[in-house]
Every structure is written in C-alpha cells, then in structure tokens.
Amino acid sequence: RMLQNQNEGLQQSLLKTAVRMECLGEEFISSQKILETELQRTRMELSNLMGRFNRLRDDCSSTQQTNSRLELKLHSVLQNMEGEQERLNLRISELTEQLSDAQYASTMEEIN
Fold it and tell me: Could you tell me the keywords of this UniProt record (predicted)?
C-alpha cells in the first residue's frame, strides 16, 4: 500500500510538472511571438530611419553642390564688379583731368 501511495504521489507530481511544463511552453511561444513582432516593428522603424537618413544625406550633398556653384558665381560677379569699379575709377580720373584742362583753358582765355 505504501508503494501505491508513493506511486500515486509521484504520478501527481509528474502530472503537476507536465502541466507546468505545458504552461511554460505556452509562455515561451507567446513570448517568442511578442519578440518576433517587436523585432519586425524595429526592423520597419530602422528601414524608415535609413530611408530618412539617405534622403537627408542626398539633400545635404545637393545643397553642398548648390553652395559650391553659388560660391563660384558670386566670386565671378565679384571679379566683374571689381573690374567695373576699376574701369569707372579710370573714367572718373579721365573726366576729372579733362575738366581740369577745360577749367585751365577757360581761365587762360579770360586772362587773355
């Protein structure tokens, strides 16, 4: 009878262990599904961030190229303006000299 009681006790213990193992298995499967869902969501988020990063990088590169072109154009305009300023300064000097000559000639005529 004692062996039968031990046998029944072991069977009960085995049954409880089997039920607990089944519960743990279900928890594991549930956790795995949650983690797989989270992993998929994280992959999608990473993909979106990578796309955004690539667009920003392309925009930055395009902006740098535009800035370089504008810098060259500005430099060219500046050189043209400096050349025009020099030309105008020479013209002012010529006209000032002509005016001075004309005033001198006028003064000489009045004296004569």
Answer: Coiled coil, Membrane, Phosphoprotein
State residue 109's pLDDT score. Answer: 86
Report CA-CA distances (Å) from 37 to 5, 30, 32, 33, 34: 48, 11, 9, 6, 5
> What pLDDT digit, counting tens, does each position of 29-57 carry?
999 999 999 999 999 999 999 999 999 99
Q: Helix, strand or coil for residue 1?
A: coil
Give domain limits for the chain: 1-78
Distances (CA, A) of 51 to 39, 41, 47, 96: 18, 15, 6, 66
Question: d(Cα 21, Cα 75) in Å, to the nearest integer?
Answer: 78
Cα–Cα–Cα angle for 45, 47, 53, nearest 5°? Answer: 100
